[in-house]
């Protein structure tokens, strides 16, 4: 029995050591494969026309982020304030910048925290701003149905991002490259 336990421990010690560099890489790959284009396409819907579209969001951007406020001003974005403009522009930029940082593995822990905050705000906007209340879309935990967009899917997103907050980007990342370059300077 002791030999069996020793074999088990040796094998899973190897798995654990490999997991320290493989898990963050896999998490970044899964993010890139499933969510990168989701967020980038969402960001594209918020851009205004022309070169200044990055600072002049479309009406669709306001309708996605501030639906009730936009309706209250008769869909005239000029009646919204600087706060709404700042939130919409920052949210739009975040949909491009944060996913890119995650995929290349630069400032990964901070970018992951930013994305978690983004997903939480996105979910709150869906529920309170857009009034999503149907059980199929909203979902419920512990209900035997894993297909609710807001509670079920986004819990997986936050879990994936939490792995990157805890583990960092892993060995194959810009973060690791910068860390290796900084070590000789610190010694």
Automatic annotation (TrEMBL):
Transmembrane segments: 21-40, 82-103, 110-129, 155-178
A Pfam family recorded for this sequence: DoxX
Main location: membrane
Lipid bilayer topology: Multi-pass membrane protein
Keywords assigned: Membrane, Transmembrane, Transmembrane helix
Gene Ontology CC terms: membrane
Coiled-coil regions listed: none
Compartments (UniProt record): Membrane
Signal peptide from the UniProt entry: none
InterPro entries per UniProt: DoxX (IPR032808)
Protein name per its UniProtKB record: DoxX family protein
Organism name: Parasedimentitalea psychrophila
Upper lineage: Bacteria, Pseudomonadati, Pseudomonadota, Alphaproteobacteria, Rhodobacterales
